[in-house]
C-alpha cells in the first residue's frame, strides 16, 4: 500500500543537503552546465565511473541527485509508493512556460484526471483520421524540398511538422504566417529555458520565454470558441468537448495549457528524432535502401494508411534506433516527497532527482556495441530492448509515459516513407557530425543534405 502523500509537498523548498553523497557540484551558479552542453553522454559516463549510479550534481542553479541506469529508472518512473513528484521536478524548468495544467506538471490523481482531456484525441479512430490529414501536407512539403538549394534538413522538417501539427492539433492550415509566428514563439520559450534567473525584465532570457508563452496562449485562446462549437476531427476539437466526471467541460485555461505543451512537445521531439534518423540513413545508405524497398512493397510505394504501419518493421526499428542513440528528452526530472534510498544511498525528502536516458540507452550491460547505429538490434532474434524493462525508454515510463508516443512514432514513419520513396539522400563530402543535447537534441549544423530525386 502506498504511503500517504505529504499534503504540503508543493510548498517545501528543494533540499540541497547532499554533501553525504558522492559527486560534485561544479562551478558556482553554473554547476556542471558547461560540460553538460559540451558532452552530456561523456559527463554521465564520467560520473558513473567515478561516483557510481547515484551521485550529487548541479545543473545550472539546481542541485540534486543524478540517478543512472535502468534499475533506478524503473524505481523512479514506476513509482509504486508515489514518492517521486513530476510536478516538483519540472517546477523550475517547464512550469513557468506551460502553465498550471500541462501533464508533466501534475501528480498522481490530478495527473490521471487531467490526462483524460486528451484520451479521445489519441484513440485509434482519431489516429486514423490524422493519417488522412497528414499525408497530403507531408507530400506537398517534401516535393517542394527538391527545388531548395543549400538544403538543411532541421529547419525544413521543423517548419513542415509545425504546419502539420497545426492542422492535426488545432484544425488550422499552417501554410501562412501562423506557422512562422508560432515557431518564433516556441524558439523564444526554448531560449527562456536556458536562462539562469527567472527575472521578467529586458535583457534576461526568462523575459524572452515569457513573451513567447504569452503569444502562444493568446493564439490558442482565440481558437477555443470555434473548437467548442464546430464538429471537427482535430485534437483541440476533441479536447474542447471532453467532459469531466461531473459532466462539465474542461476550462479554457486547462485547454490552453494542454494545447500549448502538446504542440511544443510533439513537433520539437519528432523534429529531433527525424533529424538524427536522416543523418544515419544518409551515412548508412544500405539501411536507406532496405527501408525504401520495404516501403515500395506497400501500396506500390504510395501513401501509407494507418494499418500499413504494422507492415514496416525495418522502418520502425530505425526509428527506435535513432531514439536510442539520441533520445528526444535529454533529462528527466522528479523530486522526492519523503526520505528514501536510491542505489543503497540515503536521499532526503524534497530532493531533485535527474535521469539521463541517453546513458541508459548506451550501457554495454544491455546493448551490444552500444555507440554504433544498428537497427537490427530491435528485430528478432536479437531484440536487445527486451534485456531490461527500462533499458530503452524513449517515451518515459509509468504514469507519465508520453500519451502521444504512438502519434509521434506514426508521423515519423509516415514522413520517412514518403521522403525515401521520393529522394535518395546523402551527406556532403567530408561531413563531420557534431551533436548537441541542450536545449533540444539535434546536429549543430542543422544537417545539410543532398537530395537526388528518384523519379
Report on this model:
By secondary structure, the protein is an alpha+beta fold. Helices cover 47% and strands 9% of the residues. The protein has a five-stranded mixed sheet. Strand 9 (435-436) and strand 10 (442-443) form a beta hairpin. The mean pLDDT is 94.
Low-confidence stretches: none
Number of strands: 11
Sheet with most strands: strand arrangement:
1-2-7-4-3
Quaternary structure state of the chains depicted: single chain
Mean pLDDT: 94
Reported for the largest beta sheet, the result is: 5 strands, mixed
- Can you tell me the overall shape? globular
What is the CA-atom radius of gyration, in angstroms?
A: 22 Å
Helical content band: 40-55%
N-to-C span: 62 Å
Strand content: 5-15%
Number of separate helices:
16
| H and E string | HHEEHEHHHHHHHHHHHEEEEHHEEEE
Amino acid at each position: 500500500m502506498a504511503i500517504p502523500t505529504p499534503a504540503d509537498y508543493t510548498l517545501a523548498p528543494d533540499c540541497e543537503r547532499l554533501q553525504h553523497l558522492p559527486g560534485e557540484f561544479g562551478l558556482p551558479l553554473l554547476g556542471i552546465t558547461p560540460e553538460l552542453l559540451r558532452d552530456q553522454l561523456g559527463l554521465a559516463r564520467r560520473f558513473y565511473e567515478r561516483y557510481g549510479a547515484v551521485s550529487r550534481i548541479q545543473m545550472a542553479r539546481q542541485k540534486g541527485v543524478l540517478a543512472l541506469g535502468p534499475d533506478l529508472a524503473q524505481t523512479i518512473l514506476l513509482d509504486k509508493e508515489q514518492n517521486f513528484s513530476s510536478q516538483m521536478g519540472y517546477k523550475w524548468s517547464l512550469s513557468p512556460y506551460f502553465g498550471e495544467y500541462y501533464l508533466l506538471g501534475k501528480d498522481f490523481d490530478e495527473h490521471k484526471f487531467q490526462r483524460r482531456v486528451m484520451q479521445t484525441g489519441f484513440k485509434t479512430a482519431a489516429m486514423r483520421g490524422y493519417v488522412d490529414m497528414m499525408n497530403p501536407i507531408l507530400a506537398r512539403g517534401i516535393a517542394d524540398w527538391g527545388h531548395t538549394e543549400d538544403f538543411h534538413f532541421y529547419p525544413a522538417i521543423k517548419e513542415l511538422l509545425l504546419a502539420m501539427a497545426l492542422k492535426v492539433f488545432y484544425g488550422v492550415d499552417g501554410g501562412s504566417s501562423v506557422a512562422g509566428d508560432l515557431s518564433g514563439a516556441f524558439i523564444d520559450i526554448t531560449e527562456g529555458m536556458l536562462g539562469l534567473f527567472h527575472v521578467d525584465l529586458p535583457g534576461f532570457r526568462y523575459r524572452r520565454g515569457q513573451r513567447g508563452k504569452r503569444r502562444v496562449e493568446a493564439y490558442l485562446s482565440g481558437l477555443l470558441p470555434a473548437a467548442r462549437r464546430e464538429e471537427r476531427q482535430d485534437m483541440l476539437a476533441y479536447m474542447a468537448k471532453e467532459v469531466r466526471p461531473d459532466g462539465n467541460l474542461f476550462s479554457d485555461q486547462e485547454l490552453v495549457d494542454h494545447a500549448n505543451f502538446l504542440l511544443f512537445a510533439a513537433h520539437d521531439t519528432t523534429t529531433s528524432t527525424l533529424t538524427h534518423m536522416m543523418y544515419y540513413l544518409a551515412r548508412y545508405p544500405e539501411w536507406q535502401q532496405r527501408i525504401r524497398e520495404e516501403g515500395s512493397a506497400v501500396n506500390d510505394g504510395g501513401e501509407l494508411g494507418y494499418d500499413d504501419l504494422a507492415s514496416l518493421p525495418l522502418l520502425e526499428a530505425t526509428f527506435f534506433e535513432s531514439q536510442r542513440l539520441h533520445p528526444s528528452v535529454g533529462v528527466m526530472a522528479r523530486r522526492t516527497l519523503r526520505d528514501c534510498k536510491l542505489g543503497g544511498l540515503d536521499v532526503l525528502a524534497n530532493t531533485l532527482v535527474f535521469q539521463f536516458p541517453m546513458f541508459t540507452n548506451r550501457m554495454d550491460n544491455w546493448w551490444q556495441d552500444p555507440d554504433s547505429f544498428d537497427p537490427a538490434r530491435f528485430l528478432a532474434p536479437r531484440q536487445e530492448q527486451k534485456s531490461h524493462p527500462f533499458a530503452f525508454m524513449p517515451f518515459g515510463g509509468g504514469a507519465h509515459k508520453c500519451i502521444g508516443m504512438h502519434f509521434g512514432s506514426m508521423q515519423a514513419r509516415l514522413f520517412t516513407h514518403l521522403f525515401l520513396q521520393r529522394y535518395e539522400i546523402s551527406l556532403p563530402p567530408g561531413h563531420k557530425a557534431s551533436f548537441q543535447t541542450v536545449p533540444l537534441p539535434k546536429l549543430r549544423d542543422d544537417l545539410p543534405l543532398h537530395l537526388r530525386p528518384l523519379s
